[in-house]
Specification:
single chain; about 350 residues; alpha/beta; Rossmann fold; 12 strands
Length: about 350
């Protein structure tokens, strides 16, 4: 285990141009306390790519996007899983590890996408489109996953939809991710309202292959084509990377669209004059810290209020008190597990 001074040295090397020195000293002390407790309690810490930089670069045993962290959760032999991410991520870890204690550092860490749809909504869609398989984005709560055939992440959504080999697919709940998948797979998509399916669709008079839902990420929906136009006017040689939770118009105007892990790999592996990431801003900070030799445009002002609830202070309290335990009813967990395991297999 690293000492406080060693942790401070790691953070200072990566974050001195992002985080004030006085703050880094405090953060290093908190990280040291967390690391000590983690060893004492046989815990593993998973850190999503959207975590704030001082946390992201100090305490997680594993970092990544939802798919990578799902895999790590499924493989762990630790007694406690601390998921530095929002609630649906902790639920997914619990679905995969029913006998382990799963903690999320803040009870307020929700998700606009997860809250945009309910299990009843999925059941209603199944009634309206009988026999059509349901693909559910990982950014949903356990009861919604339990009503689904298979889950997906932004990194494997295309492969999941194609693997079904179905004439029609219900894809929930992200309107923009569904639109991007439809564009990539050459499918026509419709978006029924929550209660009414278009009459033309019910009568079979509308040609479509995907049924979407009007859910959006409150961060990614803020990015616009005008943003891209303005940036390119100032920096014509910039390479713009957009998360597929951005609108199809925004991803279409960008140079690359991919999951958080795919964006990280792109910046690492592709040489460009400068980069701009259209995603949660903490991730931009984390990528800048990992790639100090590359020029990242610091034009982002969009942060996820739910991810920002996860702090080093609250992570320490969660471990100290073993609080904010994630529970998933067993009947829901078992059904949701099938959808998650199918995703991981694909």
């Amino acid at each position: 285990m690293k000492s406080k001074d060693e942790l401070y040295a790691v953070l200072a090397k990566k974050l001195s141009h992002i985080v004030p020195e006085s703050e880094l000293v405090i953060k290093a002390g908190l990280a040291w306390e967390i690391q000590k407790l983690k060893a004492e309690k046989n815990a593993v810490i998973l850190g999503h790519n959207y975590m704030e930089p001082a946390l992201f670069h100090s305490i997680p045993d594993f970092t990544g996007d939802s798919l990578e962290l799902c895999r790590k959760a499924a493989e762990t032999d630790k007694d406690i899983i601390v998921f530095c991410g929002v609630r649906f991520m902790g639920e997914t870890a619990k679905i995969l590890n029913p006998d382990k204690k799963v903690l999320v550092p803040s009870p307020k860490a929700g998700c606009s996408l997860a809250e945009s749809i309910t299990a009843e909504d999925v059941r209603n869609l199944r009634k309206q489109f009988p026999g059509v398989p349901v693909v559910t984005y990982i950014n949903t709560y356990a009861d919604v996953k339990a009503e689904s055939d298979v889950c997906c992440t932004s990194g494997n959504a295309y492969r999941v939809v194609e693997s079904l080999q179905s004439d029609k697919v219900i894809f929930l709940p992200d309107e923009y991710l569904a639109g991007n998948v439809a564009k990539d797979t050459g499918k026509t998509i419709i978006y029924p309202t929550k209660k009414v399916v278009p009459k033309s669709a019910r009568n079979g008079n509308l040609d479509y292959q995907m049924i979407g839902w009007h859910g959006r990420c409150e961060v990614h929906e803020l990015f616009t084509v005008e943003d891209i136009t303005d940036v390119r006017r100032q920096f014509p040689d910039v390479v713009i990377l957009a998360h597929p939770e951005c609108s199809p118009e925004v991803t279409g105007a960008s140079d690359f669209s991919g999951s958080t892990s795919e964006m990280i790999a792109y910046v690492r592996d592709v040489n460009a004059p400068r980069y701009l990431l259209l995603t949660e801003c903490s991730m931009g900070d984390n990528i800048a810290a990992e790639n100090p030799q590359k020029e990242m445009l610091r034009l982002c002002s969009h942060r996820c209020p739910h991810m920002q609830e996860i702090t080093l202070e609250d992570t320490l309290k969660a471990l100290q008190n073993e609080q904010y335990v994630i529970e998933v009813p067993e009947d829901i967990r078992v059904r949701a597990l099938q959808a998650v395991e199918r995703m991981i297999a694909i």
